[in-house]
Amino acid sequence: MSWILLAALVASPFDDGNGAKPSLDQDSFPLPTGAIARLGSLRFWHAEGGCSLFFWASIQQLVCAERDHIVVWDAETGRRIRTLEGHKGRIRRLVGSPDGKLLASTGDDRMIRIREGAEGRQLHKIIINENVDNICFSPDSRLLAIVRDDGVVELRKTLDGAIQHSFRGD
Length: 170
What we know:
Elements: H1 2-10, E1 52-56, E2 61-66, E3 69-74, E4 80-84, E5 91-96, E6 102-107, E7 111-116, E8 122-127, E9 132-137, E10 143-148, E11 152-157, E12 163-168
Antiparallel strand pairs: 1-2, 2-3, 3-4, 5-6, 6-7, 7-8, 9-10, 10-11, 11-12
C-alpha cells in the first residue's frame, strides 16, 4: 500500500511530451520527466561511497576525487559544476593551489595532472616512475612538492613540470 502512495507522489499523469521545461525540486534541480517531487536532495550528491574532498575557499567550490574522475561543486548551491576525466585507475591525491588557479591530481597511472582551476582544462601532465604518496602546492603556487613512495621528494615548477630540486627524505 505504501508503494502506491510513493508512486503517486513521484509520478505525474500530466506529462504532455512536448519538451516543456521540467519541473524543479525544492532545491531547483530538474526532476525526471513526469515526476512532480523528489524525496531527498541532489545537493552535493555523488555516486561513489566516499571521496577525497577539499574546500577551495578562494573560488567557493568543493572538489572531490571519486575513483578515476574529479567532481567540482558550487559550495553555495551544491550544484555539480563539472566532472573532470583523465586518470586511468584510482586518483590517489588531489589538491588545489592556494590562489585557486591550479588543481593537481595524481593517480594509480603514476601521472600528475595539472589543471587550470576555474574550468578544469588540463595544462600538462608529469610522468612519475613511482607511486606518489602526497602532493602539495607552495604558498605562492609556483612549485608543487611531490613525495614519492621511494622516499624521494621533488619540487617541480607548476608552469611546466620541470624539476627545481630533488632530495631523499627519511
